[in-house]
Amino acid sequence: MVAKKLEFKNGQFVVYPTQGVGKVTRVEEQNIGGQKIHMIVIEFGQNNMILRVPLERAEISGLRPLVSARKMDEAIDSAKRAAGAKRMIWARRAAAYEESINSGDPMRLAEVVRDLQRRSAADTMTFSGRQLYMRALERMAQEFAALHKIDVESASDKIEEILGVPKEIDLNAAEEDGEEPFEEEK
After folding, report:
1. 182 in a structural domain
2. 2 in a structural domain
3. Rounded (5°) CA angle 13-16-22
4. How confident is the model at residue 174 (pLDDT cuts 50, 70, 90)?
5. Which of 67, 82, 131, 132 is geometrically suited to a Cys-Cys bond with 71, CB 3.0 to 4.6 A?
6. 48 in the same domain as 119
7. Which residue range is the domain that position 127 belongs to?
8. Which whole number is the average pLDDT over 127-146?
9. Under a CB-based contact definition with an 8 Å cutoff, are residues 127 and 5 in contact?
10. Total domains, the chain
11. Residue 117: its pLDDT value, please?
12. Alpha-carbon torsion 42, 46, 49, 53, what sign?
């Protein structure tokens, strides 16, 4: 089996597994240790980072183009299914979730979102579970946003809407009947 050569163009969105979605700004040639090496320069706007990946190491590093819209829809559909079995202790499950998040694979990200999402407004999450959920959702939303040319926050909201995740309760919101929230006198 012959490995296919990945090609990247300026302006193309790509996924680097541990960082999420970035944009190829250029392919440059650098002289390192007397050898000329072609580097893919990727800019990650969400965290103001620039990454240089040697072209010959791109596939090994997991760098890949965005998935198709159909493949993203399949991942989101898989996140709608019932949560997986939770038979491991939390530390091991958290490590497995972390590995899935850093894989860059939309199906594995969807599994994390599926397993950790709230099913009803009454469900509570641990702090670490919430952090893992938010990171997995953000990685999915980054790719969804690039595919559909929308911002990441809108993509995140859209994914949660598709999944039927209940919205957070705003504890600072005023009462519906027109009463002002209670304020302590000074």
Report:
1. no
2. no
3. 35
4. very low
5. 67
6. no
7. 69-163
8. 94
9. no
10. 2
11. 87
12. negative
- Same domain assignment for residues 158 and 84: yes
Domain final position from 27, 50, 65: 65
Q: How far apart are CA 149 and CA 34, in angstroms?
A: 41
Both tokens of 9, joined, read: 């163009």
- For residue 41, the domain's CATH number is 2.40.10.170
The residue type at 60: I
Q: For a pLDDT cut of 70, what percent of the chain falls above it? A: 84
Contact 15, 24 (CB under 8 A): no
DSSP string, 41-95: EEEEGGGTEEEEEEGGGHHHHT-EEPPPHHHHHHHHHHHTSPPPP--S-HHHHHH
Structure tokens at 27: 């392919």
Question: Within a domain: residue 45?
Answer: yes
DSSP state of 165: P
* CB < 8 Å & 24+ apart, contacts of 68-75: 69/147, 69/148, 71/106, 72/106, 72/140, 72/143, 72/144, 72/147, 74/107, 75/106, 75/107, 75/109, 75/110, 75/140
The answer to whether residues 61 and 96 belong to one domain is: no
Q: Considering only CA atoms, which of 74, 143, 131, 71 is closest in space to residue 104? A: 143
Give the residue carrying structure tokens 């296919």: 4
Whether 125 and 81 map to the same domain: the answer is yes
User: What is the C-alpha to C-alpha distance for residues 9 and 172, in angstroms, rounded to an integer?
Assistant: 47
Q: Are residues 30 and 56 in the same domain?
A: yes
In a domain, 54, yes or no: yes
